[in-house]
Amino acid sequence: MSFFTKYVNIIKYSHYLAMLGTALLIFVCVPGIQKLEDTGSNKVSVFVNGTQVGTVKDSSEVDGMILEARRRIASESDNIVLAGSEVVLSGSTDVVGQVDDRQTIVNNIYNVLSESVMKTKQPAFEVKINDFTVNLKSIDDVIALLNASKSEYDPDSEWKVWLVTDNSRELNVMTTKIEKVSEQNVQTIDKPVVFPIGGALLKMEEIYDAAFTQKIDNSFEFGVRNIDFDENVEVVQAYVDADKISTLEDAIEAVTKTSEKNKKYEVVSGDTLGAIAQKNDMSIEDIIKLNNESIPNANATLRVGDEITIFSPEPELSVVRTERRYYEENYDAEVEYIDVDDWYTNQTEVVQQPVTGYRKVVADITYRNAELVNTDILYEDVTVKAVAKIVRRGTKTPPTYVYPVWGRLSSGFGRRKAPKRGASTFHKGIDLAVPIGTAVMASRGGTVTRAGWGSGYGYCVYIQHPDGVSTRYGHLSKVLVKAGQTVSQGQKIALSGNTGVSTGPHLHFEVLIGGSQVNPLNYLK
Question: Which of 140, 178, 145 is nearest to 160 (CA)?
């Protein structure tokens, strides 16, 4: 019995000690424990980017904490800083529970967001020229780049580039405006400028007629009259990665250096592959490589009006300028024609041979970079008047049809197996296989009755001839005439293509008599 009593006393004393310890613990820890209401989810755990950053009583406080952490990150940089954040709130209900103080949670959010800070974006000015874009640090760099682009054609910096608001755009976009810095004094002419334009130049004399010199000196101001960029330049402010901002030197190099760009060249009378290559500073091999379908080798035939692809060295930003110049030159008068109604259009006769003249000229000459674009003669003093070449020519259309293109006969007239869904099993014309862009000539002279899209024909041209016969030209890539226009035999009316219901590049050609198609091969010469 005495053993049992001792055991009970021990239990009693231990129970009292446990109760006393619990009371002391509550007394010591009571500042860190809040009694939570037992209605609903009143304890909210906050997770940012998958990491728990603390527990709050009121979830409405979380947005403010995240904003404070973001402001601290932003204040540490002068540039735009992006930090991704995905916030998840998880609620629970506890009668009692511990929540974290605001600053602790803000610090935890700051640490999590700092780990997810994206690349710093820096303010820059984006210069866009067609598809080319370069970013510069300041507006001064943009102005310096644009001025450098025109410096080759404005060595004395008489013209200055300004940036102005582009009112045609809804967004805040700037574009360029070039103005002369100050008006220059009228230039006097000590010696006329020798300038090669239109015909062979004669050797300039040392002394010129004083009256003429005085006259043009008082009437014209010479030099650059206008300068502008050929491409549309757009400048906008943006925020970009630091490594996307170019130095001014690199930007000038990228914009002003010339690169080989493809452009179209129309074959003119007298052209050969060698002549075209020489005119465009290319090799014959380069021309063949660019036009391997239409020019398979150096012996390929070129026709006047054909369009071929050539290289053209051009900078990203081209400069167009107009210069007023004085020069002297040999010149030829325009050919004069006398129409003879009893002759066919392929009959001509020269009745007067030309004589080259000589004149003194003041002209506005427009260039695109170094290429001459246009000459507008403002004044001329003719020393020797040119005599025009006079030619008699026929006006009557020959009763013959010429091939509109020279190409391989890929499909004849008549019944056939339809080569493509939608194509007719009775071929109402002939197909001449030629590369896209081949010049298409009028088989006979007449009046254009249709020029444009023609359903299965694609782009097409219809020509009505004086005797009621008509011809049709289909699957064109480009139409060069308009309805109602009169064309002569052999005149360029279009470029061949592959439009409409077509299985490959070719010209579809028809001859219609009385409104019905006939076999063109019976009429072509």
Answer: 178
